[in-house]
Amino acid sequence: MVNANDWQQEQERLERVEESLRAAISGLEPEVTGLHEQAADIRKRFWEEVTVNTSTHEDFEETFYSIRQQEAMLSERERSHRLRLQRYRSMQRLLPSPYFGRIDFREDGFSGSEQIYIGVASFADDDGMSFLVYDWRTPIASMYYDYSPGAAAYETPGGSIAGEMTLKRQYQIRGAQLHNVFDTSLTIGDELLQQVLGKGADSQMKSIVATIQKEQNTIIRDDTSRMLIVQGAAGSGKTSAALQRVAYLLYKHRGRIRADQIVLFSPNPMFNSYVSTVLPELGEENMQQTTFQEYLAHWLGSAFRLEDPFEQIEYAMNPASASGYEARMSGMRYKASEDFLQALQHYALWLGNEGMLFRSISFRDRELITAEKMKLQFYSYDRSIRLANRVALLQEWLLRELASLELKEQEEPWVQDELDYLDNEQYAEAYSALLKKVQRETVVFDFTQEYVEQYGDLRGQEQGEENVFDFGLQQEELLQRMIVKEHFKPLKREIKRFMFIDVIGLYSQLFGEEAAYRTMADEAGVPDHWTEICRQTKEKLERSELFYEDATPFLYLKELLEGVRTNTVVRHLFVDEGQDYSPFQYAYLKRLFPRARMTVLGDFGQAIFPQATNLHEADSSLIRLHGEEDTRLIRLVRSYRSTREIVEFTKSMLPGEEIVPFDRLGSKPFLTQTGGSAARAERILEDVAALQAEGYDSIAIITKTAAESCEAYEALTAQGPGALRLITKETLTFEKGTLVIPAYLAKGVEFDAVLIYDASSQTYHRESERKLFYTACTRAMHRLMLYTTADWTPYLQATDASLYEVGSLEPS
Ligand SMILES: Nc1ncnc2c1ncn2[C@@H]1O[C@H](COP(=O)(O)OP(=O)(O)OP(=O)(O)O)[C@@H](O)[C@H]1O
User: Fold this and answer.
1) For the CA of 577, the nearest atom of ligand 1
2) Interatomic CA distance for residues 473 and 558, integer angstroms
3) Which of 114, 175, 467, 727 matches a 20 to 30 Å C-alpha distance to 418?
4) Distance between CA atoms of residues 191 and 183, nearest Å
5) Residue-level pLDDT at 457
6) Is 216 in the pocket of ligand 1 (CB under 6 A)?
7) What integer pLDDT is reported at residue 105 of this predicted model?
8) Which residue spans traverse the membrane (predicted)?
9) Which residues in the chain come in under a pLDDT of 50?
10) What is the β-pairing status of strands 123-124 and 131-135?
11) Is 652 helix (H, G, I), strand (E, B) or coil?
């Protein structure tokens, strides 16, 4: 705390800033209110201001320039309106708490020091010369996050500016009243952070702008790496830093990068809702948010029933449920690998010489163009042309073939039949459609011109004659063409969509002969259980289903054949929970967004999917993706979410991981062993009630699987009323309250208290599930309780007993 004098001065300054803000807001108010109407009004009067005269060439030119001028004026006015509105909104945002930090900085070579107050937006006084508040993203404000008092420097476009920071202060301001002022010698004082972290969990993630830590600031402001990898312990602020980074990039590159040019891949749709308020809170628009599954479903969802990653993980967790389990698991790992990616590339090369599979183009049960003919045509092209380019050539050839087949088709009896069966209404409809097209475009159909020449102005004909539907023979011919054209339209569409390639057959063929596959796989060889992997994959394909691990390779093969699909608009790609994506998926994302810089945030300690990617070790495929020179790796080891006791307890499950708890104290985790399920449910409900009484209102009962969630939900609701919410993968919004949720859906989010429903050795015993258990436990901010009706999971057996409390055997 500061002394009374300083406090007084700060309070007075705060009042002055608040006054200036209010004055500026009310100054802008009349301009801003009704801005929308004004802009609409200008648009409405647009044509009144323009004299349209096109009689002569000069008049036409004059009209043209007058429109251009009017247009330029309109867009300038709209731009300045927009800017004023932005300014107005940012001042509104500042009003309740204009700043949160201050540094005093004396630049080398100058005698006086400048006071720099830092807030969520900049605010200058009337003359616009001196800043009363600096936006946290300005270069000078970076010192607030990077330095303790003493020597300090910051980067500007003109070079580095060094000097001395003589003071660093933090504020808590509510309703323009000072609540707290701390002078701090640490980077960002512990006191404020203690207070922030001690608060309850929310259904929405919060901005950390006032307490960003130095290493987080490095992530936020990195502007040079093509690939930025953040390996950070559970609760180390990866997601928080990522969102601040988005806000920073939007600020720094304002006018060059828009929010929709930044994409965040999230672990599940519920997570989207969880993080959706941070950017608006910082005065920025939200970036685009999606999940990898949504992307896959967009491209493959109509052709297949796609397995999602949650079904895949459920499968992985239930070895007893299926035969061929080992093979499937081996397949999951293999299909996620760079080896498989390479095998597919070799396969595409091989297809350049042989083995292509096509689908005949059929019409009315006749094969118009056979697969065999396509194959002959395809392999007649120069073999040095790339596969996808040859496919494009074939596509053009098919469209030409189809055009000549379309002409021939008019002779077929079915066309005449169809014409005969057109009732008067359909006839009239077809005719008027024809008329409309002729009127609209000069060359709608290739025959329009010819028709117009022969029959003159159709409009005149329609008006002048009584019986306009009494066509002559040639008119009938036109309708015949139209009929065939309509019927051939879907065929053309299919060709344009490359449906003449049998991609399913080609993917399946890859899992055909082992000897052939070995040549594709090269020295990497085939994985264990290859025969069974092949059988499972083909069987699934036959049922028009696709395993999650097959979806990305399938899309990749499709693109090797059809040409790469790229998005060149996106400039920044963020992947959260990055450990859950496979090396294959990363290679795919890199191809998909060739102009985007990537920021991948994850924790290998929470890698719960079989396809996990190691983010940070020397052999990481992620580092290889853009090469070491273009990659920056940042490690976060400080964990902010949980109390020291919870971090000490959870980190003991992952020996070897460097995790440093933030020094916030709380109760030790509590282990309770009960006699049976009913007793456990009773005990859990008692504990939930006790936690609620302590003021915790975000409580999660975390289970291993969806089935266990249902079982827990039933057991708990059978015991009494109490509002519980069952979370499934379909749940879209994240709300406060008491939830029952499978661990893999709780990824990335946090709760005041976490209750592990079943921490028995029966449920968690395999090494592969250790990280899932760890992930579940690390969701807790303040309280962690674990239950079992049998032996404890082996992950806990080695845990030092001093790290937890043990409950009674039976509830009292
Ligand atoms: N600098 C900070 N100031 C205040 N709070 C912070 C800071 N860094 C992190 N936190 C808080 O710590 C908690 C965990 O942060 P976040 O969810 O971003 O971590 P994470 O690394 O993404 O976690 P996980 O990998 O476990 O999902 C959040 O409540 C966040 O607000």
Assistant:
1) 25
2) 47
3) 467
4) 10
5) 42
6) yes
7) 96
8) none
9) 442-471, 809-812
10) antiparallel
11) coil
